[in-house]
């Protein structure tokens, strides 16, 4: 008997059955709990780091358990297969749940990374022709020309976005492959793209196809051929003089003042000079302003010589903001532009002390206000403030207030010692919002303005527990229910707990409603355990995060009355397939009203599980 019991209790099969009744997550899968939930996976997520070591150890042997236990991992695993180009993993996933039933964004990931073998597999098994345009666009955008050719040969239609990239940087034979199948709009867009990238040969090929002749010889031809209106503008903007010259002869209609304006912005002096000599459109004040902002001194000088009336104080302000001292000097001393408050404010904002001193000595008398020093203080530029102070500039209490907002303690100390403008309660309130504890302590000790309840409320909202504790211990203003509300909405549970144990203001229903809306499951669980009385469930107006699978699962299991009768419709409208599956598993009906969704997998799921009768509203 003992040997039989021992054999039973040590049986791997029995242990496996016992484990299925245990609550929790397998140890090897615990790290996956922190990965994002939702149908769409961000490109910033490094799935190789997150999943690579796990697949190296387990391959696909535990994939069923992973996807069953953590359903939010389905799109992440699929994204990993697409980014790495793992054909075996794609085949396994297709056999388990069908790749045609999931969001097809993984196909664009395959295209972006150039995994042509996987693309060919998908073409043969689960490709949805509704996504071809996006697949071709992503492949062309990332110069994955073999993928572009492979997909296009299977689906030879007009694709404006993809063809634009093919024309601008693709091989000539691919352009010729696409060209017979493109409509006029796609060809015009492609010509503009090719012109912008300096691809003269592509422009010429497209021109022949667009116009039906190599040259426009009659005015009537020119008027009828209205495609690619921005071709010359785009070529000029990027400095492609040879393309501009060719277009001038063969397609002279595609030019506006934007050509010279943006050529000036990018410093293409030869293009600007050629346009000035051979075209009549000219330019606008934007040409000078953008050239000054970009630091093109020679361009600014040339434009002043030929278009003096277009030089304005806006050009001076832009040059000051970017710190282009030579251009500023030229505009002030040669052009004779007046130094107004706009220029001084720009210099003060960016902390250019030498620029402030130069402009300050040349400003128009009685044209500046306290705004100049206030802005310098707000940005923490102490040397600039000291310079302005020595030049006799005025300031206001906004200087110290805004310096405190930015956490500039040294600035606050200097203003306190050298100016009499003072501050307001906004100083401590805003410093609390930013978590600047040392500055708050100094204001508390050396200033008398104090603060308002906004101080603790905003500190709690932003999760600054030490500031909340200091204000609680040393200030009398206190807080409002907005403190705990904000902390809960921001998922600052440690702040929520401190306020719960040490303050009496409590919270409102907005605390749990906001935490739910933002998907903070841990905070919602704690609030349900400790502050549920503050939440009038019968009057709840909760905005559910249908894309957050973890929160939706929690609500369905713990607060099911908060999930509305039309939750499935809301999830469908948002395109959240995994949430639709979850709701369906909990008995929510999928009601068919003939609507077609943007995602084909959603349409397939609805087709398989829809009901033809409307549910009774609860």
Automatic annotation (TrEMBL):
<dbReference type="Pfam" id="PF13637">
    <property type="entry name" value="Ank_4"/>
</dbReference>
<dbReference type="InterPro" id="IPR036770">
    <property type="entry name" value="Ankyrin_rpt-contain_sf"/>
</dbReference>
<dbReference type="InterPro" id="IPR052050">
    <property type="entry name" value="SecEffector_AnkRepeat"/>
</dbReference>
<dbReference type="InterPro" id="IPR002110">
    <property type="entry name" value="Ankyrin_rpt"/>
</dbReference>
<protein>
    <submittedName>
        <fullName>Aste57867_13029 protein</fullName>
    </submittedName>
</protein>
<dbReference type="Pfam" id="PF12796">
    <property type="entry name" value="Ank_2"/>
</dbReference>
